[in-house]
Amino acid sequence: MKHQIFKLALLSSMMLGLSSKVLAQGTFFDRLIDNSLVLHKDGLAKSKQEVKGYVSTFENTNGKVSDYRQDFTIEVNANLAYEVGEIQAGAKSFSVMFLNRKDRGLGIEFLVIYEVTGSENQSGGLDKARNKWMKLCNAHQAGKLVEQLYTKDAYYYNRGRLLKGTKSITAEYGYMNSSSYSLKLTPKHNKFVTPEIAYEIGRCSGSYPLPYMLLWQKQTDGTWKVMMDSNY
């Protein structure tokens, strides 16, 4: 029993040490690598200058990040992981979801950040949208899938490539029209950040057996659509 307590204490100490180490190197935003993308409530910061401007405005408005708590992470491969957590800046909390480059000193390649304003669990709505996504995918109707389940200006991020808009994403997902293609999405972690914004990290199975990352937005009619879709 004492041995188990010691192991738990050691593990907790290591986790706290990692969090402190990351922040001791500077603000959370110092983890952004040179070609990082930052998706926030006002849009997408794409260039190094835009990202720097976003961080500067954030810190001038809210103060520097004082704490980071990891909520969930899933490995994509030996060098990459998707992660969800929460940062504290002043009196505000911000939920973050990102692609973590373990091969670049825990550098962040793609960051999604929204202020936490509180929201009840709306898993039923997400489940309905996700099931429709899988039904259209496995019916080999990529066009209908994107048209019905992605916002007009949705983003798709894959291995450094950024696509925007339903037309580009439909063309990218053309492989789903193959009769041999099949896919199942299994959510591993959902975070309802605001009444209209939700994060999802999960794992695909079937023709593509790897993790995925989705940013969902609730529409005025109560349905949910994908604002950002990422896989590697």
Protein model, in words:
This protein has 232 residues and is an alpha+beta fold. The protein has 2 domains: 28-115, Roll (Nuclear Transport Factor 2, Chain: A); 123-231, Roll (Nuclear Transport Factor 2, Chain: A), CATH 3.10.450.50. 30% of the residues lie in helices and 44% in strands. The protein has 5 helices and 12 strands. The protein has a 6-stranded mixed beta sheet with strand order 2-1-6-5-4-3, covered by helices on one side. α3 runs antiparallel to α4 and α4 (142-149) packs antiparallel against α5 (166-172).
In brief:
Helix content is 30%, strand content 44%. With 232 residues, the protein is an alpha+beta fold.
Indicate the CATH class of the largest domain: Alpha Beta
- Please identify, by name, the CATH architecture of the largest domain: Roll
The strands making up the biggest β-sheet line up spatially as 2-1-6-5-4-3
As a whole number of angstroms, the C-alpha radius of gyration is 18 Å
Number of strands: 12
Helix tally equals: 5
Fraction of residues in β-strands: 35-45%
Please give the largest β-sheet. Answer: 6 strands, mixed
Instruction: Compute the number of structural domains.
Output: 2
| Span between termini | 42 Å
**Structural class computed from helices and strand pairing:** alpha+beta
Give helix % range. 25-40%
What are the low-pLDDT stretches, counting only 5+ consecutive residues below 50?
A: 1-25
Remind me, CATH topology of the largest domain?
Nuclear Transport Factor 2, Chain: A
Overall 3D geometry? globular
Order of helices and strands: HEEHEEEEHHEEHEEEE
Average predicted confidence as pLDDT = 91
